[in-house]
Amino acid sequence: MSEQVNLFKKAAGEKAVEYIKDGMIIGLGSGSTVYWTLKKLGELVEEGLNVKGIPSSLRTEGWAKEFKIPLTDFSEVQTLDIAIDGADEIDPDFNLTKGGGGSLVREKMVDAHSKKLIIVADESKMVSQLGEFPLPVEVLPFGWEVTAKKIEALGAKPVLREREDSIFISNNGNYILDCHFHTIADPKKLHHELKQMLGVVETGLFIDMTDTIIIAGQNEVKVIDHPNK
Ligand SMILES: O=C(CO)[C@H](O)[C@H](O)COP(=O)(O)O
């Protein structure tokens, strides 16, 4: 990642903290942009802000602990006030591809149970159509080969995710198929088709969920609210 992109991520990630108010339960998303949100939030907590977070990945949990952000979980709360998360692609309708870090299931759980979802990203994530970034689909390890064949029949090239010559295992003990569609004409339809497949746990398509996008680029940090939310 270039130094400049990292500065954009920092600017977007830190801006999101302005939405956090005392007493809130916060969904803590995943990724290198959210890292900056967590770091800034940790400073506010040290100054006396009283909040609790639910982390969406083990990595985020580690950072939250490092920054001394108090944590809670779904055994204590059912609804979160706000979630702040990253994205791999954002289309003009505020639909997202997520899961580049492999945390899509926990991210979707946290984001879907929040009253407001804020997405933080650098400007390279804005696209006219989803699909250039391979769509992460979490699948059961058992029979993943047949699940991959079914996904292939939808027009994708699914690639089993690996890390350091081993199969990547999600925080939930599952596999990730990175599905190369190149263009996704109807993200909502594709999400539903994938969800109906035996063996698919969840897709990285986040449809109709985002309330606000904070996007940082060369000249400014833009806050774009969904027109109908
Ligand atoms: O979905 C995610 C992880 O599963 C991340 O939010 C997404 O990959 C964006 O990451 P980054 O902020 O590092 O670009």
For the record, give the distance between the C-alpha atoms at the N and C termini, rounded to a whole number: 33 Å
Oligomer: single chain
User: Which percent bin holds the helix content?
Assistant: 25-40%
- How many structural domains can be distinguished in the coordinates? 2
Low-confidence stretches: none
Strand content: 15-25%
Instruction: Label the overall shape.
Output: globular
Class by SSE composition: alpha/beta
N-to-C SSE series? HEHEHEEEHEEHEEEEHEEEE
In the CATH hierarchy, the third-tier topology of the largest domain is known as Rossmann fold
What's the count of strands? 15
CATH class of the largest domain: Alpha Beta
Radius of gyration: 17 Å
- Our count of helices gives 6
The biggest beta sheet reads: 6 strands, mixed
Lateral strand order in the biggest sheet: 2-1-3-6-14-15
Ligand identities = ribulose-5-phosphate
- In the CATH hierarchy, the architecture of the largest domain is 3-Layer(aba) Sandwich
Rounded mean pLDDT score: 97
Description:
Homodimer. It holds the Pfam family Rib_5-P_isom_A. Belongs to the ribose 5-phosphate isomerase family. It catalyses: aldehydo-D-ribose 5-phosphate = D-ribulose 5-phosphate. This protein is of the alpha/beta class. It folds into two domains: 3-125 and 207-217, Rossmann fold (3-Layer(aba) Sandwich), CATH 3.40.50.1360; 135-202, ACT domain (Alpha-Beta Plaits). Helices cover 28% and strands 25% of the residues. The chain has six helices and 15 strands. The chain has helices at residues 3-15, 32-46, 58-66, 104-112, 144-152, 187-195, and strands at residues 25-28, 52-55, 82-85, 89-90, 96-97, 117-122, 135-139, 157-160, 162-163, 166-167, 175-180, 200-203, 205-206, 212-216, 221-225. The strands form four sheets. Strands 2-1-3-6-14-15 form a six-stranded mixed β-sheet, with helices on both faces. The longest helix is centred in the first third of the chain and has 15 residues, at 32-46. The radius of gyration is 17 Å and the shape is globular. The protein starts with a helix and ends with a strand. Bound molecules: ribulose-5-phosphate (5RP). Residues 9, 29-33, 85-88, 98-104, 107 line the site of ribulose-5-phosphate.
